[in-house]
Amino acid sequence: MGRAIADDAVGEIIAMTPMKLTAVFVKAPEGYVAFIKELPGANTQGVTLDEARENLQEAVALVLDANRALVEEGRALLRPSKRPYS
Fold it and tell me: What CATH number does the domain located at 23-86 have?
C-alpha cells in the first residue's frame, strides 16, 4: 500500500509546480476583454491593457481558490472546455 502524503505537503508540491496558461487579450470599444484559454471562469475586462492584466491575475487566483475549495470539499473540479476559442 502506498504511503499517504499530508495535505500540507500536497499543497507545497502543487505550489512548486509551474503552470503555463494562455492569456488572451482582445481589444473592444470599451477597453480590453481578457481570459485564460485553459481555465474556465477566468475572464475579465479593463479599460486599459494594464488594468485587464491586473484583473486577470485576480480572476485566475479566484478560480484556482474556488477549485481548491471544491477539492477540499470532495467535489470534482471544473473541467477545461474542449471547444476552441476563436
Answer: 3.30.160.250
